[in-house]
Amino acid sequence: MERKIVKYGEYVISVDIQKTEEYYKNFLKTDTQANRNFVEYCNTMSEEERVFFRSLAIDPQCCNIEHAGVSKKGDCPCGGYFLFCGDYVEYPPEELITVDALVKNDFEYSRNDNRINIGIFQFDFQVPAYEVNDIPDDMPDGFICVRFWCEHMKWLLNEKPEEAVYEPPKFWEIHRKIKEYFAAKALKKKLIEDEKGE
After folding, report:
1. DSSP for 95-143?
2. Among 77, 84, 124, 141, which has the highest number of CB atoms less than 10 A from its own CB?
3. In which band, very low, low, confident or very high, does the pLDDT at 64 lie, cut at 50, 70 and 90?
4. What are the φ and ψ backbone dihedral angles of 33, each rounded to 5 degrees?
5. pTM, full prediction
6. What residues contact 116, with CB distance under 8 A and at least 6 apart?
7. 177 versus 15: which is more confidently predicted?
8. Per-state percent for the chain, helix, strand, coil, to nearest 5
9. pLDDT band for position 55 (50/70/90)?
10. Whole-angstrom Cα distance, residue 105 to residue 55?
């Protein structure tokens, strides 16, 4: 059994390389636009990002992406999670604050940010011992979940995105729409009056 010790921030993890590789060999990929766009990014990702995935034996192309759509600028922020076989050797303590303590501090609460930033990825290791975590219910025994978020993902596919991000219009766009509405209403009224006159 090939094990490897990796360290990211305050997380020290023993990774089972063989079992993780087997997991990804049998991974069922879902064919969606978001997944295809993510795979497109994986083909060109930086060496720093590749090293992270290799260290945990993760195949980054095996993921079901969650996203809200694509903006007019071509931004496609997305997230998801990866699983790998392993055990935590060390991890940072969970920082929780009670409601009473929050009120006492005038609702100001600062805590250590244990997320790991690599390239465009922001990774968040999920620890089962934490009171608050986001671990999938169907995660196999002996596996660890690492969630990620890519704020600066771009739309890379040649095809038109099926989902668009709702963006509130600028005030001048609203003003233009109102002017167009009243102009159309006035024209319709004039046409009706002209018809009556005839």
Report:
1. ----HHHHHHTTT--------EEETTEEEEEE-TTSSS----TTPPTTE
2. 84
3. very high
4. -60, -45
5. 0.76
6. 8, 9, 11, 122, 123, 124, 125
7. 15
8. 30, 25, 45
9. very high
10. 41
